[in-house]
Design goal:
Layout lengths: L1 E3 L5 H11 L7 E5 L6 H5 L3 E4 L8 H4 L5 E4 L8 H15 L3 E7 L10 H14 L2 E7 L4 H4 L2 H7 L1 E4 L11 H14 L5 E5 L7 H12 L4 E4 L2 H10 L4 H14 L10 H6 L6 H9 L1
Parallel strand pairs: 1-2, 1-4, 2-3, 4-5, 5-6, 6-8, 7-9
Helix pairs in contact: 1-8, 4-5, 9-13, 10-11
The chain binds NADP nicotinamide-adenine-dinucleotide phosphate.
């Protein structure tokens, strides 16, 4: 049986769809803290089990019968190290044979503030003795395109990335990679650096918004603190704004750039282009 944590999330749902295309629904265990969110998957025959990272004592039972587990990193930044440790320990006691984990691009050397929890999780997985694949995912294209409409309306893209290039890929491409590894990967103890085939600067992103929309859009650089303040002004909680601004500033120095194209080799197709992602977001 193949289990996926965070199955109600945007990436988790896409992974489950990929698995459904390749294996019987009854072989898939969707792990979720609120099973009510996955009634549609229950109707398709997927096994849905309650799985709250904070409810440690219940995790091993929820993994009964699972052979291969995808741990999608938690969205609760700052609480992820103990949460992920609890999942890894439960996987061990439940007899799970293989774990894949969605880490961060170049997690071992990344200067992003987000990287620490991923490094700690990678270390816990290695220490566990489980067979593993670390899926070091780069930035999502959707991190940019989710604001595309607003950016076109304002004619401005803001960020601290300067001329830094980002090799972003769509959630759908990372999901295809995760499903493939869960289903097919036979050798453990691997680390994959996954990112988009092509990189872009925020000026390129603004130019793509302008091309696709037919309206003028320019990139405006903001220093990290000013960007964080601007994000808070549009309603982001301070902690989230600070993480986004930190990531944007570190991307200026190439922290989210990668040209190995391991993701497209793994999924057997080119990754979605920025232009296609912007076109879809503005449609
Ligand atoms: N590479 C990138 O650019 C990037 C960007 C954003 C996030 N990420 C990371 O990648 C992960 C997946 O991305 P995404 O877009 O799918 O995020 P998402 O849509 O926010 O999904 C996060 C998932 O984590 C679950 N979760 C949170 N706390 C939990 C807990 N205590 N117990 C069990 N499940 C819990 C959520 O469950 P609920 O539905 O119950 O909330 C949800 O299913 C994120 O969680 C984050 O670690 C990466």
């Amino acid at each position: 049986m193949y289990a996926v944590t965070g199955a109600s999330g945007q990436l988790g749902r896409l992974v489950v769809q990929e698995l459904l295309a390749k294996t019987d629904a009854g072989n898939i265990v969707a792990l979720v803290r609120d099973p009510g969110k996955l009634a549609d998957l229950v109707a398709q025959g997927v096994v849905v089990r309650r799985f709250d990272y904070n409810d440690e004592t219940t995790l091993a039972d929820a993994l009964a019968g699972v052979d291969r587990l995808l741990l999608i990193s938690s969205s609760e930044i700052g609480r992820r190290e103990p949460q992920h440790r609890a999942v890894i320990s439960a996987a061990k006691s439940a007899g799970v044979g293989f774990i894949a984990y969605t880490s961060l691009l170049k997690a071992d050397t990344s200067p992003l503030g987000l990287a620490g929890e991923h490094r700690a999780t990678e270390a816990a997985i290695k220490d566990s003795g489980l067979s593993y694949v670390l899926l070091r995912n780069g930035w999502y294209l959707e991190n940019y395109t989710m604001s595309a409409g607003m950016e076109v309306a304002h004619g401005t893209v803001i960020g601290s990335t300067g001329d830094g290039r980002v090799s972003a890929a769509s959630r759908a491409d990372y999901a295809a990679a995760a499903a493939k590894v869960l289903l097919d990967w036979s050798t453990g103890q691997q680390t994959l650096e996954l990112a988009g085939d092509d990189s872009f600067t925020l000026a390129d992103y603004a130019a793509t918004l302008a091309n696709v929309s037919g309206k003028p859009v320019v990139y405006q650089y903001l220093p990290k603190d000013a960007f964080s303040a601007a994000l808070q002004n549009v309603g982001l909680p301070p902690a989230v704004a600070s993480v986004v601004a930190d990531s944007s500033a570190n991307a200026a120095d190439g922290a989210l750039f990668d040209e190995r194209r391991e993701l497209s080799r793994l999924i057997g197709r080119p990754t979605q282009t920025l232009s296609d992602a912007v076109t879809a977001a503005l449609a």
